[in-house]
Request: fold
Amino acid sequence: MEVSETIQCPFCGQSFDLTVDTTVSSQRFTTDCEVCCRPFEVAAECEPGAILSLDVLGS
Ligand SMILES: [Zn+2]
Reply:
């Protein structure tokens, strides 16, 4: 079950939609900014069908 959430890039400050697999309750992954293409790490807490929290991790 995938849910989209808006996230803000820590480099350029642009917001874009990120799709998260909510069947994984606690996860960390790296995503590329859709605007400036720089990679950053994201931590997500989920329950099936819902994103409980989505945090950009500082590098
Ligand atoms: Zn960016």
Remarks:
- The longest strand covers residues 39-47.
